[in-house]
Amino acid sequence: MVTENGIVIKTGQNIAWVKTIRTSACEGCASKESCESAKEGQVEAVNTVGAKQGDAVVVGFDTGSFVKISMLLYLFPVFSMIAGAIIGSHLAPIYGFDNTNCTATFSFSFLFLSFLLIRFISGRLSGDRKYQARIVKIRRSVPLTEEACNIRA
Question: Which domains does the chain have, with CATH numbers?
Answer without folding.
Answer: 2-62+128-149 (2.40.50.140), 65-125 (no CATH)
